[in-house]
Amino acid sequence: MRTLVYVVASTLDGFIAAPDGSFDFLPPEPDVASYLVAEWPQTLPTFAHAQLGVPAEPAGRFDTVLMGRGAYEPGLKIGVTSPYAHLKQYVFSRSLAPADHPDVEVVAGDPVAFVRDLKAQPGGDIWLCGGGQLAGQLLDEVDELVVKLNPVVVGSGIPLVERGFAPSRFTLTAARPLDSGVVVLRYAR
Fold first, then answer.
1. Distance between CA atoms of residues 21 and 188, nearest Å
2. In 3D, which of 95, 160, 168 has the Cα closest to residue 133?
3. Are β-strands 15-17 and 144-150 bridged in parallel, bridged antiparallel, or unpaired?
4. Phi, psi of 128 (to 5 degrees)
5. What average pLDDT does the segment 169-187 reach?
């Protein structure tokens, strides 16, 4: 069975973006970019592959990416309609018109049912790119959590997981501190 892996950058106080959805306060530090190229190249946008030295079809465990509308929007603002063209791309939105976004599959239905069906199909693992609302809906389906914990506190914004109080325990499987102060934490359910 395929696994769902939430790979995301976060602040020390658990936010993945500002209240307006921007995330420029989490700049890609050179050592973090090098780490991602070596360990998680499929999580880098296709348009950045050549600049970062990533092959056009990067090797790795994922063949699918899931995005909430908020995670998809930043690319749209700069004219990128297919941010991860090297993967099968699903965007969860009830307001995007599928005809206007032919490079991704827009899903308006229940994310949990969709992911359960996707996990049962043959294929590689599934990367949950974000955002917080989608992660909150899918948290019970997340098999692995990879947090790039940034040494910054912002006070408010879009949380790592947005949902009501419902503790969900994960087990730490790896921790890798980088020179920039970012610590990559890996957890399994």
1. 27
2. 160
3. unpaired
4. -90, 110
5. 97
Sequence-distant (≥ 6) Cβ neighbours of residue 63 within 8 angstroms: 87, 88, 123, 124, 125, 126
What is the C-alpha separation between 74 and 68, in angstroms, rounded?
11
- Walk me through the domains of the chain, giving residue ranges and CATH numbers: 4-162 (3.40.430.10)
State pLDDT tens for residues 121-170. Answer: 999 999 999 889 999 999 999 999 999 999 999 999 999 999 999 999 99
Asked if omega into 79 is within 30° of 0 (cis), the reply is no
Query: In this structure, are residues 171 and 188 in contact, taking their beta carbons and an 8 Å threshold?
Result: yes
- Name residue, tokens 């602040």: 11
The predicted model gives 17-31 an average pLDDT of 90
Decide: residue 160, CB within 10 A, 0-12 exposed, 13-18 middle, 19+ buried.
buried
**Contact at 8 Å (CB) between 183 and 176?**
yes
pLDDT tens by residue, 59-108? 899 999 999 998 998 888 888 999 999 999 999 999 988 878 888 999 99
Instruction: Report the C-alpha gap between 105 and 108 in whole angstroms.
Output: 10
Structural tokens at position 62: 């994922």
